[in-house]
Amino acid sequence: MAAPSENASDCSVSYDVIEDLAGQNITEEVVAIWPCELRSFWEEILPFVDLVRFLLSYGTSLIVLVGVMGNILSFIVLTQRQMRSNAQNVYLSVLAIYDTCTLVFNFMVGIMRGSSSQDINRTFQESEALCTLHGVVVELFNILSVWILVAFTVERFIMFKFPLKYKPSLKNTYITVTVVSVLVALISLHKIAVSGFEGDSVYGYKACKTRRKIFKEIIYLYVALNTWLPTTLITCVNLVIIHEMRLNRRRRDQLTQSIMSGADDKTTRLLLLVSTRYVLLVLPLGVVQTTELIWNGSMAVLTGNAGYVDFMVTKIRLKWTRAFFFFFYQFNFAINFFLYLKSSSAKQFRFYLRQVLGMKQGQSLTFITELHLC
Fold first, then answer.
1. Does 84 or 256 have the greater pLDDT score?
2. How far is CA 81 from CA 84, 131, 232, 356, in A?
3. Which of 118-132, 144-158, 310-324 has the lowest mean pLDDT?
4. Mind listing the pLDDT tens digit for each residue in 280-291?
5. pTM here?
6. d(CA 27, CA 46)
7. Are 226 and 329 in contact (CB under 8 A)?
8. Which of 63, 130, 216, 356 lies deepest, with the highest CB count within 10 Å?
């Protein structure tokens, strides 16, 4: 191809500022994609990009390590003989399994695929079956975690709204968990035949080449199932539950008959803590992700046209803002253990945790917390 028409002396920012172009032959196509104004912007935003990359490498590694340890401990405690007879603990133990799978198969594998050596991602790229499997697993456990939480929230709502008609039971809980898991698994299997918008990972690895049908609009379904639908449901249902809890507390204060027990209130407060944490951590990501999808889909400008630089500046900003909030979103799958420790309604969890760790009941819980924060 002919040499580029842009004179390098016309711009103070060289093409080397773009990592993939450092030391490469600059073609006319590259000149069109990376004009001087866009290179200047990239140089300005690069410190923020480096910060996000650091967080999604070393920070995510720490989240995975601590999260897996915490989830395993949570699962062991919640499945103790005295604990597993409680329907609430069935939901939380299943949540610990799905959160662990998300940490390992999504985040840890994502870090490995985006590592500087690229050897691991090359293995994925050379095997479409492996790429397809990874796509299914990532979607499966991400969505499973949040919808198990939604199922638990809805059950609490039904119990508060219709206390005389519905009481939580192990049988109902196992049925609910099974139905949710099967439905989400069936939805996730669409990845076997359809490839969506998968070429812009926050971990920076290149997407696999595929012979599957490309259907970019499928990302809207994923965003809806992973952010907007669950956050809307959890928020609305939690508001109703809080209202019902206040009514229940008022009945007790007035020494009238209370429909719900104090134990039910404690269980519900723990649920509110866990579910509110999810909403707060996922909402910023959902807002930015949705804005990015709309911007990229409706405001796209081709290279060489007026407005191309402005479009790309906003596109880059949105991409790395999404990656920034994605880092905090990852905490959703790693901090439940610490919420159980600190929650005033989880005394039984702390009691059996001490037993699992072989600690005397008189020893300080502060020691346990500090041990697992190290």
1. 84
2. 6, 40, 35, 12
3. 118-132
4. 999 999 999 999
5. 0.85
6. 23
7. no
8. 63
